[in-house]
What we know:
Blueprint (H helix, E strand, L loop, with lengths): L2 E2 L2 H15 L10 E4 L1 H8 L8 E3 L5 E4 L8 H19 L8 H22 L3 H10 L17
Parallel strand pairs: 2-4
Antiparallel strand pairs: 1-2, 3-4
Helix pairs in contact: 1-3, 1-4, 3-4, 4-5
Amino acid sequence: MTGAVPAALVASLLTAVSGYTGYSVPGDPPAVVTLPHAELEAMACDHPCAVMGFARPDGTIALDDSLRIGTDPADTSILVHELTHFLQRAAAGGAPAADCDAWIEREREAYDVQYRWLRDTAPTMRDFSIRRARLGSHPMIPPCRPGQPLP
Length: 151
């Protein structure tokens, strides 16, 4: 693992995510590490993809090491997204999404929390718009058809 994100930042963001979602923060926070993009791709996609963060089933959160977590709000919002997944899984007793519909709902909630946090931490609407634009125009939700089991 290349690097770790400061525990104090993780704790602060977990508290924020809990405030948005109502999920309890477990006693053990996730390990948050940064990895070269190729390692992150191999972990999350197993092929070239645009992944920037991934919440592993073991609770570890892996982030692209090009992200400026803690200094760049748009980049930090990716950690907020992944921490939302960590709390979703903790609230479900560690269980992954049961099917495609549940998975899509978890993704929608994580993007909602990410964008709300980005908006709430921006000093002006202009700053929020710039930060939001850096993330791209569409959330990256891989294909999954409602009603179908997860691949």
